[in-house]
Amino acid sequence: MKWYQMDADVVEQKLHVTTKHGLTDRQVEQRRKQYGPNRLETEKNTSKWLIFLKQFQDFMVLILLAATLIAGMLGEYVDAIAIMIIVLVNGFLGYFQEQKAEKSLAKLKEMSAPVAVVLRDGTWEKVPSTEVVVGDVVRINSGDRIPADIRITQANSLETEESALTGESLPVMKHATSISQDRLDAQDQVNMGFMNTLVTRGSGTGIVVGTGMNTVMGQIASLMVKTEKTTTPLEHKLAELGKILIAVALLLTALVVLVGVYQGHPVYNMFLAGVSLAVAAIPEGLPAIVTVALSLGVQRMIKKKAIVRKLSAVETLGCASVICSDKTGTMTENQMTVKEVFLNGKFLYVTGDGYDVKGNVFLNKNKVDRDFPNLEPMFLYGMLCNHASLMVKKGKNYVDGDPTDGALLVAARKLGLSHQLHDNYRIIKELPFDSDRKRMSMVVEDENKMRFLITKGAPDVLLPRSNYVMKEHGRKLMRSEDKQAFDQAIDNMADKALRTLAIAMKPLAKDESLNAATLEKDLSLIGLYGMMDPPRKEVKTAIEESRDAGIKSVMITGDHEKTARAIATELNLLPENGRVLNGYQLNNMPIAELRDIIDQVYVFARVTPEHKLKIVKAFQEEGHIVAMTGDGVNDAPAIKASDIGISMGESGTDVTKEAASLVLMDDNFATIKSAIIEGRNIYENIRKFIRYLLASNVGEILVMLLAMLMAMPLPLVPVQILWVNLVTDGLPAMALGLDKSEEDVMKRGPRNPKEGIFARGLGFKVVSRGILIGVVALIAFMLAYEGNPDNLIYAQTIAFTTLVMAQLIHVFDCRSEQSIFARNPFENKYLVLAVLSSVLLLLVVIYWEPLQPIFHTTALGLRDWMLILIFSFLPSVFFGFSKK
């Protein structure tokens, strides 16, 4: 249908909906069944069978399968079946790990999906954009992504950027009237809003006329469906490590085979031993374990109210040295409350906190009511020039919209002004708020057809535009002493950490021009609101802990310098010698000069979103890794330029969320600190299981290589090596990825982003522990063998068990950078369970008679176990005391 040619009321009739009530729940359900979810089709997910088969594409696994085939052909059926079972079990483990990671990432995408504001059963509510259906009445504001194709029914200075559709980056001005022309292209349908395009200015409402693939964007998507999977810097590092390990493994395999054959061992046995050793040298499970560790860490972050949109942010979080944070809503409660009013040259005080409508207005200690001169008009105009709604949820009031607007609504309700008063007034025109104008205006017509302009905004913007002032006895010309009184009132409120908002009006003639350039002149200033958004209780502690971790917290706010300084001091963010810069100073300061003093600045006041980009660049040029928060569409460039872009989940626009790496579901500064702890911990856990896997592999290689060089029998048979690789590497390594952070994780400085995986002595730990594990297994083998070939299976069982137990004890050593004694071994219950499972499986292999011939084992006695445990504890205890 050509929706752009229809009047709005015709669209309503066609879709059986009204813009005053929206769809009913029943209609929504029916249309969801009829049209399906509002999403664009993407590439189909890889089938589970292909994911399973992919586990066997690894080069070393293919060699192992070839060796199994050879073993079968040579009649070694027991070995062939055992190896095949181990390969299959390893394949299933890899498959389940990959499935777990995919489910976690799918859940993450679902949680970070954009939302839409829709009218249903007469109530505005937020729903995931995928749940929008044809006929839904949607509300859009600057910074939003349009959730579906809509026929615009109301437009207030509405502009959208449609470059995704048309390639044209200039915004398109929208209106709500029908267009009679035929065969118009999408870019000319200026009364339509299109799915996934961006609202750059103004606000509006519309009726959804197309969802999913039945949108203009859907038609484009159907031509070319493509998805990209990005890898993190950490995954790149591990891929490089994998290539090195494969080269080393192949070299060792060749060396083992040649040395073994030279010493007279059968070629087949040496080939199988070499292949098994190569498989042991390469931690095939490492990429899967890393992915699972990242995805599980991301799930933990979600529980702590932080959604990671880009996995690379997990690694970068551990490097953050500066957090640049918005004040309002992030460091404060985001429940703006009117505490004072400056009116008729007097200060009035408003009681009550937050969004509770219980409260009164006082002059000194005397309660005043609506009859107080100019009080009712001031509060009424604040309620009319407003986009917020006061809602009730679970018995508590909350504001849907801007917190400042919410504060004005609550103040009006305290004076007894009901929201139904809106019906007596009609909005003729709106000049929306933006960060450059620092004001918002509405042309309003009352029930007597009288028109007037209401303007609210920053006092320093409205004062110069006001030639009149409202006094007890009516409107008077603004004199210099009036301006001086307002300036003093602003300073007085700022000293109390109150945010000031001025409100003015202007009577309009019926035929007066509504030209935006002249409307906001010759205003009559009514008064000032003094509002406070109290600091969040947990933020002060979070700032102190971040400071201990070497992370500087910086407050960025549009508030007055005095207000910002007062809040920063209360939060213990601003040290004695710390500097405060304002927007005017930033404008006149070259970036080179800002860079020289940036480390001394802790508060930026009266800044615009453009200043944020300058601040980010200055910190980065000083070598800092910067986390930057934001919520508005104009914050997106700074968020994108920062090392870790952080968007507000509650107040943030869809565009900001898309530019961000991290989304705070509760808009809370303390959540950033929790995310940094989790980010540091995830990286440390990945280092832990790399240390464990590689040290274990070094031990396995060394025990075989040294035995061959000493012309001794093989201490381990191939099937035992494979068993060690599966049982002692997989489960404990996975459990290390679930380890809680160490107590001093926020006592260390930020990690250098150029730091390699083996930095901070990890390489030495891997080699030294691995050598000792290999040596003790070899000594145990030699003591049991005593040069008697009849003792070979017994000696191999001793070596096999010593190696497994040494590795299972070593896993507890890997939990700390210090030593095995630094942490409670029972703290990680998953690790304890994994180790117990591995020990149980080891006992089955040793003592269950049907498995003994397969794994070349024999039952061991109490003395054997005493020898094994003494040797197994030696590596961890030795390095536990040496602390290196």
From TrEMBL:
<feature type="transmembrane region" description="Helical">
    <location>
        <begin position="766"/>
        <end position="785"/>
    </location>
</feature>
<keyword id="KW-1133">Transmembrane helix</keyword>
<dbReference type="InterPro" id="IPR023214">
    <property type="entry name" value="HAD_sf"/>
</dbReference>
<feature type="transmembrane region" description="Helical">
    <location>
        <begin position="860"/>
        <end position="881"/>
    </location>
</feature>
<feature type="transmembrane region" description="Helical">
    <location>
        <begin position="791"/>
        <end position="809"/>
    </location>
</feature>
<dbReference type="InterPro" id="IPR036412">
    <property type="entry name" value="HAD-like_sf"/>
</dbReference>
<dbReference type="InterPro" id="IPR006068">
    <property type="entry name" value="ATPase_P-typ_cation-transptr_C"/>
</dbReference>
<dbReference type="GO" id="GO:0005524">
    <property type="term" value="F:ATP binding"/>
</dbReference>
<dbReference type="Pfam" id="PF00689">
    <property type="entry name" value="Cation_ATPase_C"/>
</dbReference>
<dbReference type="GO" id="GO:1990573">
    <property type="term" value="P:potassium ion import across plasma membrane"/>
</dbReference>
<dbReference type="Pfam" id="PF00690">
    <property type="entry name" value="Cation_ATPase_N"/>
</dbReference>
<dbReference type="GO" id="GO:0005388">
    <property type="term" value="F:P-type calcium transporter activity"/>
</dbReference>
<feature type="transmembrane region" description="Helical">
    <location>
        <begin position="830"/>
        <end position="848"/>
    </location>
</feature>
<dbReference type="InterPro" id="IPR023298">
    <property type="entry name" value="ATPase_P-typ_TM_dom_sf"/>
</dbReference>
<feature type="transmembrane region" description="Helical">
    <location>
        <begin position="244"/>
        <end position="264"/>
    </location>
</feature>
<feature type="transmembrane region" description="Helical">
    <location>
        <begin position="689"/>
        <end position="711"/>
    </location>
</feature>
<feature type="transmembrane region" description="Helical">
    <location>
        <begin position="56"/>
        <end position="74"/>
    </location>
</feature>
<dbReference type="InterPro" id="IPR008250">
    <property type="entry name" value="ATPase_P-typ_transduc_dom_A_sf"/>
</dbReference>
<dbReference type="InterPro" id="IPR004014">
    <property type="entry name" value="ATPase_P-typ_cation-transptr_N"/>
</dbReference>
<dbReference type="GO" id="GO:0030007">
    <property type="term" value="P:intracellular potassium ion homeostasis"/>
</dbReference>
<dbReference type="InterPro" id="IPR001757">
    <property type="entry name" value="P_typ_ATPase"/>
</dbReference>
<dbReference type="GO" id="GO:0036376">
    <property type="term" value="P:sodium ion export across plasma membrane"/>
</dbReference>
<keyword id="KW-0460">Magnesium</keyword>
<feature type="transmembrane region" description="Helical">
    <location>
        <begin position="270"/>
        <end position="296"/>
    </location>
</feature>
<comment type="similarity">
    <text>Belongs to the cation transport ATPase (P-type) (TC 3.A.3) family. Type IIA subfamily.</text>
</comment>
<dbReference type="GO" id="GO:0006883">
    <property type="term" value="P:intracellular sodium ion homeostasis"/>
</dbReference>
<dbReference type="InterPro" id="IPR018303">
    <property type="entry name" value="ATPase_P-typ_P_site"/>
</dbReference>
<dbReference type="GO" id="GO:1902600">
    <property type="term" value="P:proton transmembrane transport"/>
</dbReference>
<keyword id="KW-0597">Phosphoprotein</keyword>
<dbReference type="GO" id="GO:0005886">
    <property type="term" value="C:plasma membrane"/>
</dbReference>
<dbReference type="Pfam" id="PF00122">
    <property type="entry name" value="E1-E2_ATPase"/>
</dbReference>
<keyword id="KW-0813">Transport</keyword>
<keyword id="KW-0547">Nucleotide-binding</keyword>
<dbReference type="GO" id="GO:0016887">
    <property type="term" value="F:ATP hydrolysis activity"/>
</dbReference>
<keyword id="KW-0067">ATP-binding</keyword>
<keyword id="KW-0472">Membrane</keyword>
<dbReference type="InterPro" id="IPR023299">
    <property type="entry name" value="ATPase_P-typ_cyto_dom_N"/>
</dbReference>
<feature type="transmembrane region" description="Helical">
    <location>
        <begin position="80"/>
        <end position="96"/>
    </location>
</feature>
<dbReference type="InterPro" id="IPR044492">
    <property type="entry name" value="P_typ_ATPase_HD_dom"/>
</dbReference>
<dbReference type="Pfam" id="PF13246">
    <property type="entry name" value="Cation_ATPase"/>
</dbReference>
<keyword id="KW-0406">Ion transport</keyword>
<feature type="transmembrane region" description="Helical">
    <location>
        <begin position="717"/>
        <end position="738"/>
    </location>
</feature>
